[in-house]
Amino acid sequence: MEKNLLQEDIDALFAAAGANATAKTNDNGDAKPPEKYSFSNAGQISNDQMRAISTVNDLFARNLMHTLGAWLRMPLKVKLVSGEQLPFNEFLERLSTMSYICSVRLEPLGAVGLLELDLALAAPIVDVLLGGTGRAGQVRELTDIEEAILTAVVQVVMQELNLAWQPVGLVFAFEKRETEAQAARTMTLGEKTLCVSFEARMPEVQGVLNLCLPAVVLNAILRRLIAQGDQPRRRSKDAQAKMRELVGEVKVGAVLQFPPVRLRAAELSSLEPGAVLRLPLPRYQMAELRVGGLQFGRAYPVRTGEHRGAQIEGENCGSLMKLSSGNDVAAATTSVN
């Protein structure tokens, strides 16, 4: 059922709203004047949000450096250079004439961003993936084969972006390569964007990787990111039990050895098969049990069938640690200085 408001009803609503605004007071009891709102601030990213973005992008840069470097099998350094808010037309003015530009869909926001890769990085990447050594080449347009190879590299970049932004549920999906004219139509020229720049260094060349995202659609995601960052991370009891179970399956190296002793070089040089080397140690000297290279305690070597172990003495008296079994190398070794 529709209800039509008369002019008197509308005037009454505005009068009531004005009275409520006037009734608001500050700490001193004085009436607060209505605050003006500037629509030009819509989509403005706050300082807290920018710090949260920098944290996520630092993580992305480190992960991309290790993942892409291992994939290319060559040294690669990636670092965050800057993150700033720009009108879309300013971002377009900064685009290089020789660059790889692709559109990126942001889900579940349904928005579209842009990714720019300096073509100076394309030549060594393509050279490595085709079996070369990663030499820098002339910056030029890509062939169809080179573009297909570079698209695979961009897919790796998408994977690392998704991994970094996973806590807030933002998903990056590669769409297609865009020309500069097509890229200019993805957003309105005056729309505020978040432009994040990364520097990539390879042995013979360096270039930039730029990410342009519409700022207004990121506000809800960024608020969620800040809220999650303020919450203390607590592990549930099930997670703690699972962690203890996994740690319990970890294998660490253990060795039972004599403490360091000093010997004359002449005694070592005169050794022959069948000779007995007398060590300057007491007859009942206990051996050192080292776990992961660190001294765990003192113990006696023991054996049960094919299994060798260490009988720990002292504070942990009575405990038995299995060192090796079967035809493994003997656990007791001698360290000579």
TrEMBL record:
Q: What is this protein called?
A: Flagellar motor switch protein FliM
Q: What job does the chain carry out?
A: FliM is one of three proteins (FliG, FliN, FliM) that forms the rotor-mounted switch complex (C ring), located at the base of the basal body. This complex interacts with the CheY and CheZ chemotaxis proteins, in addition to contacting components of the motor that determine the direction of flagellar rotation.
Instruction: Tell me which species this is from.
Output: Edaphobacter aggregans
Please name the Pfam families in this protein's record. Answer: FliM (PF02154), FliMN_C (PF01052)
Q: Which InterPro entries match?
A: CheC-like_sf, Flag_FliM, FliN-like_C, SpoA-like_sf
Topological relation to the membrane, as annotated: Peripheral membrane protein
Could you tell me which residue ranges the Flagellar motor switch protein FliN-like C-terminal domain spans? 247-313
Q: Which Gene3D superfamilies is this protein grouped with?
A: CheC-like, SpoA-like
Q: Gene Ontology terms, cellular component aspect? A: bacterial-type flagellum basal body; plasma membrane
Keyword check for Membrane: yes
GO MF annotations in UniProt: cytoskeletal motor activity
Q: State the Gene Ontology BP annotations.
A: bacterial-type flagellum-dependent swarming motility; positive chemotaxis
Q: Cellular location of this protein?
A: Bacterial flagellum basal body; Cell membrane
This protein's UniProt keywords: Bacterial flagellum, Cell membrane, Cell projection, Chemotaxis, Cilium, Flagellar rotation, Flagellum, Membrane
Keyword Membrane assigned to the entry: answer is: yes
The family line of this record is: Belongs to the FliM family.
